Amino acid sequence: MSIDTAMQQLDTESLRIMESAARLCMQRCEEALSPEHFVAAALDESVVVQELAADSGFYWRLPVKAAGEPGSRGVTPVLSVRFLKWLRIASEYTRTEFEGERVSPAALLYSLAAHPEALVEDARLQQALAGAKRSALYRAACAEAGVTTAAFRQPDTTALGPEMSGTEGGNDAARDALAQFCQNLCQDVAEGRLDPVMCREKEIAQLIDILCRRKKNNPMILGEAGTGKTALVEGLAWWIHEERVPPALIGVEVYALDLGALKAGASVRGELERRVKTILDALKVLAGQALLFIDEAHTLLAADGQGGDDLANLLKPALARGEIKVIAATTWREYKKYFEKDPAMVRRFQPVTVQELAPDQAEHVLRHVRPALEARHGVLIRDEAVCVAVSASHRFMADRMLPDKALDVLDTACVRVYLRAHVQPVDDMVLASTRTHLVQQLEGLRAESERGFDVAETLTACEAELRQLEERLDTLDKGDAGQGFRDDRSDSLVVTAADVADVIAGWTGIPRERILSARNEAIQHAPARLRDRLIGQDHAIERVFRRLQASAAGLTDARQPQGVFLFTGPSGVGKTELARLLAQEICGHDRALVRINMSEYQESHSVSRLIGSPRATSDMVRAVC
């Protein structure tokens, strides 16, 4: 490439600096134009570059050439190989990162600072570029290209040639590329942004066993939502930080892939694949010094219309050869839906099952995070609140998993206690709003009464309701004063079991008294309540609750259902009603009863309503439609 061809890619300021650099090269009797000549000319003659160097903390001078060194004065210099590579990288950054057409001085300096060892020979210039603030160069390049940027985007490692693999500069550039789309969990641990993980020692040890393999060393974490799949990887980052891992994993960095950042702005065909290829190349450059964690991994393969199959094909070779190490996490449902359809992808991952924590383990987790919640909300959490948060959520919120649901309940209870002390309670605001409406209604009724309308009865009822409401408001005000509702944030506010029960009651609709009552006590008194509501079935109720009481006392296998019952008898004697009352007593509401009327499944083909249509039938229907 000649100088004339290179000048066509430069903007006006870069073109002027290029001419000065060529003159400087001729004055020094040197045949090849290098990046050092350009930087020296820019710092000497360009006001824009001088201001930019001051902002980024960059300073360097071209060393004086010794007398008597051979040269070719008057010969037009050619572009050196390093300069051509520099110009190619800067052009790529200008198009992709800065969305510009012409290469500016800031873009040139930014690309040079991103890869100093590959483009610069002078050791002092390499040191100066390494100490420069690349964020200032990046913002200046965006400003010159007319692009507004909110944050510094790290450079892309795809501009590196294969010769950079394994070098210190290549490793730094690879980490910069990973930082563009990933979050460094080990760095978050070192800076105290992640909490230690409890009660997952066996699962973390299983992760380490898989990661230390020579090949097929990619764990797939499988579990239901809320069981702690992401926390498992955070626990691995903690173990690496504390050096509780084998020597092969000491110093390894765990990068969590940000799928939002990866897919944002990747609407152009091939852009998403290019970004994934960049991440894979960076992991190969680091050669075992980094792990990639992909949370909700099925979303990467389920990129409808965005090359989900292409992304899988990019991952398969690197995973099979053991060039990179990837930890994926997804639910069982998504694993069967997306991964099991691709046996080649399944073979490259080793499953690690994450089960729901037992209630006693969930209590350990909540006690561990209790100091952080107390510091965050300025409250004091009693141990009874921790116990009720676990036991009540486990009992009445069966659609979610521990410890996630217990943490949400306890966190919400802390917020409500804080707001109750510093903000007017919601119940008081509702009563005040109701009082305003009653006052307006009373004024209207009095106006009608003055005009001769017969509204005496309605007026009397409205006045009585208003008096009762004002008495209730006065009682609440006195109660609030007695309970210490204040705006003194220095005093500790206490989160009790009743506060936790109020949260669960608001979410599920179950009365607070039912939530606070012990399960054994509730089952013990339930038969008497059921006898009053289901007449003539005392023997059936006694047999049912005898089994439930044995289960509540721990006399049966915990892995089995609490009870399996077969109600027989003629129509209309209360079989369905007993099942509905059982659901209400055990789960708190009859909505927990799932009713299947087997009279609707007499035909052999009707079973598809329960388990779904066979695969061949569904495929044929889709093909015909």
Automatic annotation (TrEMBL):
One of its GO terms (molecular function) is ATP binding. This is AAA family ATPase. SUPFAM superfamilies: P-loop containing nucleoside triphosphate hydrolases. Keywords: ATP-binding, Nucleotide-binding. It comes from Thermohahella caldifontis. Pfam families: AAA, AAA_2, AAA_lid_9. SMART domains: AAA. GO terms for cellular component: cytoplasm. Residues 215-359 form the AAA+ ATPase domain. One of its GO terms (biological process) is cellular response to heat. It comes from the Bacteria. The keyword Cell division does not apply.
